[in-house]
Amino acid sequence: MNRNALTLKQLSISYGRNMVVQGVDLTEIQPGTLTALIGPNGAGKSTLLRGIAGLTRIRGEVLLGDTLLSRLGPREQAQRMTYMPQSLPPGVAITVIEAVLSAVQAGRSGQPGKAELDQAYDALEHLGIGALSSRYLSELSGGQRQLAALAQAIVRKPEILLLDEPTSALDPHYQVRVLGNVRKLIQAHGLIGMVVLHDISLAARFADRVTVMHAGQIAADGTPSAAITAEMMARVYAVEARVEHCSQGQIQVIVDRALDRAA
Amino acid sequence: MSATPAVDTRARARADYASLIGRRSRLLALFMVLLLSSLLVDVMTGVSGLGLGQLVHVLVHPEAADRITQVIVWNVRLPYALAAVLVGSALGLAGCEMQTVLDNPLASPFTLGVSSAAALGASLVIVFRPGQIGVDFNALVAGAAFLFAVASIGLLLLMSRLRGAGVQSLVLFGIALVFSCNAGVALLQLFATEDVLQQLVFWTLGSVARATWDKIAILSACLFLVLPFSLRASWKLTALRLGEDRARSFGVDIRRLRRASLLRISLLSAISVAFVGPIGFIGLVGPHIARLCVGEDQRFLLPASAIAGALVLSLSSIVSKLILPGVIVPVGIVTALVGVPVFVFLVFTRGGKA
After folding, report:
1. Could you tell me if residue A263 is inside a domain?
2. How many domains does one find in chain A?
3. Which chain B residues are closer than 8 Å to A134 by Cβ?
4. Are B268 and B90 in contact (CB under 8 A)?
5. Could you give the CA distance from residue A23 to residue A181 in angstroms, rounded to a whole number?
6. What is the pLDDT along chain A (263 residues), one digit of tens a residue?
7. On chain A, which terminus has fewer CB atoms closer than 10 Å, C or N?
8. Which residues, at least 6 apart from A188, have a Cβ–Cβ distance to it below 8 Å?
């Protein structure tokens, strides 16, 4: 099990002259916890996640314990973390089991044997979709496809799990099912989880830590109730909002109206 | 107590997977049988009729047959028919890889300008006819076509390295190459004499009638050299089909995969174009036919694309002899006539499921 925390030091990412992520520092992202990255459109959340995953050129450092992840080769990086982009393409004519096997086999040579097949079935059964293994991706609902994508991620047994908007376009059943599974996995295996979310209430409900991004920088960071405040909603999202605490302790954000934006 | 539901599910899943693999393997075998039948019919078809018994006899005892039949079978029918199969599989395989690495179902081996560059090379030799340098004219044309085709890919890989390995810049540069080479060929045509012009046009209508045993040996060697490398990359290519970021996150070195794939594509398509001229459509439709039948697990799709390409070109070769009695129409003209009905039939009957 992994005991090292993830640290970002002065992480910057530019697209041409446009600096999308500007000197982000995040410390002590602990194993067994889920961190939600939230923020308005264009705040740099997904870019930051791709930067951590090694998919885009960065300045600064990504550290796991003492290991400088950003200096490792692509292969070593892929062994330690798995990045899951927004959705599995439904138009590719392969079955769920083949999709999961491709996650196991892509980084190595040879053909899958019984052990690899078992790993893939374990991942699917773990997520409660064992019965879908021989279905084609096109036959799945959006939510089922997202669970299949999650199976691809966990079958690789990473230390760090990076998920880019895994619940966008899903109905409430699958939103809760996907994030509930993510949370369970992270806690059970001591993974470091980071997830980009648009839905603030979902972030508050499932994440241990909420990091709010605004214009490429960290605007707030802490426990859900510390990070998600009416003041933050006004400053970052330009909305007048109430942050209500429900009877079960969950945070609910109710947006009343849009404020005039400076820009 | 009976088995737990999880074990039940697992057992059923295993059985389903085994039957899926079995079904696809059987489809591949069926493809092979169809291809061999088509090859046989292709050898039997021609101006002078040749029965199956007679054919087998000439093949098994060439020395016992009369001289004319010998020549017809061994120097004409067999090399042409085999060339159709080999070129078809080379283009089908190359097309399949091209569609995956460019993430574009409309791509073909010629998308990035390989055939246009080859045409320019061939046209230069045909127009300027370098005097007596002791090399056979047809070999010179093929050599120039090959050289230009390989150079075009070299240029493309160099550019992609300079500009980063983005697919879009690769495609844009490839298309620029297509237009530049076509412009060069058009310029040559403009100043060519009538006789030379006819040769130029004829070269651009691909034809298996340019096949010789030497060419067949080189083609098969190239195909058997490349195919194992393609198959070795099959899981990486499957992952790439699911998205570039996803594949990279699975540990696939995308730049390397793409470079190696383009190298295989260029070798296959450059040799094909150099030997029989540009034969369009096979590299586009072969992979699509294969995809409709065996799906996109590249372990099966790559070989199926090769066989489907070979089958369409072999069938086209048969049809090319039947259209006008006594004339072999260049097969490049016929491929679409044969390929389109097969393709449309599959689209309507299978509807994208394998």
Report:
1. no
2. 1
3. 13, 16-17, 20
4. yes
5. 32
6. 457 899 999 999 998 888 899 989 998 899 999 999 999 998 999 999 999 999 888 999 999 988 898 888 888 888 899 999 878 888 899 999 999 999 999 888 888 888 999 999 999 998 889 999 999 999 999 999 999 999 999 999 899 999 999 988 889 999 999 999 999 999 999 999 999 999 999 999 999 999 999 999 999 999 999 999 999 999 999 999 999 888 777 888 999 999 887 65
7. C
8. none
Q: What's the number of CA atoms in the CB half-sphere (13 Å) around residue B279?
A: 44
CATH number reported for the structural domain that contains residue A198 in this entry? 3.40.50.300
Tokens representing A164 are 């880019």
Residue indicated by tokens 């995040």? A26
* H/E stretch holding A70: none
Q: Which residues of A touch B243 (CB under 8 A)?
A: 85, 88-89
Domain assignments of chain B as residue spans, ordered by start: 40-350
Cβ–Cβ contact A95 with B under 8 A: yes
Backbone angles phi, psi at A228, to 5 degrees: -95, 105
Is any Cβ of chain A less than 8 angstroms from the Cβ of B352? yes
Residue for token pair 């299949």: A148
ipTM: 0.89
- Which B residues in the span 253-292 are in contact with A, Cβ-Cβ below 8 Å? 253, 291
Q: Does domain B40-350 have CATH number 1.10.3470.10?
A: yes
- For every residue of A23-61, DSSP letters joined together read EEEEEEE-TTEEEEEE-STTSSHHHHHHHHHTSS--EEE
**Alpha-carbon distances of A30 from A3, A11, A214, B236, rounded to whole Å:** 8, 18, 23, 32
**Does the beta-carbon distance from A134 to B242 stay under 8 Å?**
no
pLDDT tens digits for range B56-113: 888 888 788 788 888 888 888 899 999 999 999 999 999 999 999 988 888 888 888 8
Print the domain residue range for A163: 6-258
d(CA A206, nearest CA chain B) in Å: 24
Residue type, B134: G
